[in-house]
Structure formats: structure tokens, C-alpha cells
Amino acid sequence: MGVRFSGELAYEVHAPNASLDAACLALRKAGVEHGLQLFGARAAGAMRMEKGFLHWKADLITEFDPFETGLNRFVKLEKGDFIGREALLKRQAEGARKKLVTLQIGASHAPAHGGASLMQDGRYDHLRRRGQRVGMNLAYAFAGPGLAYMGSPGQLGLCGDLVAATAIARSPCDPGFERFWG
């Protein structure tokens, strides 16, 4: 038992390949009275995003450092020498070029897609993902300083239209993480 990548209470069930179908059917039957429903990988991705969980090689990419992705709490520059320390000290002194922000998209007709353009003051940044459990169309973006604070407005290219995009708190589902860790 544990909190899964989706931010929800979850269990992992291990069964031999030959028993997978029977195990799935038994779990689904037992879950009917509890409202158990199947969901796919995109729904799990949306739930982890609504919880504010970041994914390696989707949201955490090598083009951006820990200061830009909001992971600076894990960087212990005072612990002594380590590979990359000098580069991180330099980046910290220069300040972040971009910052990973969560955006609420002002449209419901289509989800935001990774790689879409985010525009503010004539400058473009790029989106990383999407979400839906909290009734919002969400996206992550590495935004320039002008869009890197809560409430800052921008626009997003979505299905040929420019729609509003507003920076919001990292975890709109459970901002204080009280649900499982409080």
C-alpha cells in the first residue's frame, strides 16, 4: 500500500502472467460496491499533475536546472565538493532563466498538449502536459520571469485559437499535501 504517482491511495498487485486476467476480473468484481473504475495512463498522468508530482523526462528535463524546476530544496550546496557544484553555484548566482509553473487553461474544448506554445508579452515558451480531476484544464510550462508567479496571465495556442493561461499553485488538488501526509 502507498501513495502512487497519481497522488491517490493505491495498491500494487503482483500475479503470474497466466493469472492476470483472473486477477483483474476478481478485483473489478470486488470493487463494484466501492465504485472502482478502470482508468488509463493519460488519466494517471493528469492526476499526478493535479497533485503537483513531476515526472522525469516529461517535466524534469536536462535543459532546466533544479532552481528552474522548483527542486532547489534537494540541492545541498553547503555539503562540500561534488560533481556539478560549481555549475550550480554559477546558475544560482545568475538566477533562473525560466521557471516551471502550473497553468490553468481558460478553455475546456481540448486539453493542452505538450510542445504547444505559451505566449506572454510577445515571447513564447513551451508546454509540457495536461490534467482534469479538479475540473480544470491544466498544463506545465517552463515560463519566463513574467509568467513565473501565481496569477500572472498569458495565452496558449490551442487548436488554432489563443486562449487564456494563468499561473496557479503547483498542486491544485491538494496544495498542502494533507490528504495523505497531514
UniProtKB/TrEMBL annotation:
* Positions of the GCVT N-terminal domain: 3-79
Q: Which InterPro entries match?
A: GcvT/YgfZ/DmdA, GcvT/YgfZ_C, GCVT_N, TrmE/GcvT-like
Q: Which PANTHER family match?
A: AMINOMETHYLTRANSFERASE, AMINOMETHYLTRANSFERASE, MITOCHONDRIAL
Q: Which named protein is this?
A: GCVT N-terminal domain-containing protein
